[in-house]
Amino acid sequence: MKSAESDIVHSADAANRPLRRPEWLKVHLRTDGDFTELKTIMRQGHLHTVCEEARCPNIYDCWFHRTATFMILGSVCTRACRFCAVTAGKPTELDWEEPGRVANAVVQMALRHVVITSVARDDLEDGGASVFAACIHEVRKASPECAVEVLIPDFMGQREALQTVMDARPDILNHNIETVRRLSDRIRAKAKYERTLELLRRAREMQPTIPTKSSIMLGVGETWEEILSTMDDLREANVSIMTIGQYLQPSRRHLAVERYYTPEQFAELKQEGLRRGFDHVESGPLVRSSYHAHEQASGVMTK
Predict the structure, then answer these.
(1) CATH code at 291?
(2) Distance of alpha carbon 23 from its chain centroid, rounded?
(3) What pLDDT is recorded for position 2?
(4) Is the entire prediction scored with pTM above 0.70?
């Protein structure tokens, strides 16, 4: 078999000029129908979505199909990761009515699977864990049939904060590893590779029946072998679901793309993940942690 690594699109002077985006990464704009309706619901509820704040390439597709990822605890993050488009700074917002508004929006949108994430809030004693728990409770009360997935920050490794979230019993606990071990300190602000693995291990220890999930982005300087090693690390932490996607540079001040992986390589990585024992692997150029989240979870939550 031809080496997957050899097919990756390289640029000899990637540091000096951006790589041209391949055809398979072009996104078609759709702003009619459900997209407009969903945006109205978000604005009326004074809610933030990671779809907008992180400039997700799937926003038109997901919103057209009436799915979205709510971003709680404001829109300003205490960390400034080199890959992320969310505004970094000193947050001022802590709204205890937000969980109720999220639940109301879930009902209005008739969601069957909701993802709730947040900015990092290192300024809060529990990192915002209590607000995550309140969101889970409010959504369950308002829409008992809706599955609740949370995509949490690392809470700076606080065991008590993670316990608060796990005691609220989300249907899926998601925390992203983002990149390979060698690149983690350079790319992520404050987050640590080993801390991520420890959080994922602890989550399964606290609630063994709740599936865990993590995501990695490709194209920031990792090798094929390092990707496979990261898969092994996640499986050792008993992670159930893995998502793999292509990093796209949000702006010129963010980390540059060093390489693009082909759809065929993403398909090969999916098979590598399944061979390692993940219950589900979502792998593709435009895949993000919350993309088609209900499909990722459908076969896992019943196991």
Answers:
(1) 3.20.20.70
(2) 24
(3) 43
(4) yes
